[in-house]
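Schema walkthrough. Field components (list of strings):
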Amino acid sequence: MTLTHFSAVLLFSLFTSIVFGITQRSEPKMMVRFGAFCFVLFVGGTIAASWVMWAIKH
Amino acid sequence: MSTTTQAATKPAKTRASAVSPAVALFAGWFVPGLGHLLLKKPVRAALLFVSIAAMFAIGIALEGKVYTPATGDPLDILGFAADLGSGSLYILTRMLDLGHSSVQIAIADYGTKFVVVAGLLNVVAAVDAHSLASGRKLS
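Field assembly_structure (string):
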């Protein structure tokens, strides 16, 4: 099995966010919101860090 | 009047479940989501099982390293503790001799992290089941 870096990020973020959403909030609506928030932070943070690394290299 | 207002704003009292917190903790550790299933939360249980098992399986499919306790390296012991968090998934992997003892290809490093994080997330889920059973978490 092979994954691109980005698909690995998406899968990691998805599964981790689901578990965080369920375990860190009590109400179903807040679980979905917190899970989505975590997913956006994971993916957004990775993309931002990638650009920072690119900027340092260039 | 003020008594009525205070009663209305008072937080709901915590209510412990019929399932023992220790049983929920152990069941949740042994099989991802089983603690929540025992607490009659099947949707959460299914989501937890799919997420943790898929993450573990992807890690194995990416030829990730499966840590063992007897290598003598302290960092490997930490990795072993995290992997062991997956409960039966880790035990099954060791019994079937799946996974690798070292990282051999670049993508396998991702696989190693997937397996480790699956174990850590399962511990978080098991502790959540314990909190639900003990009444520390309301719902």
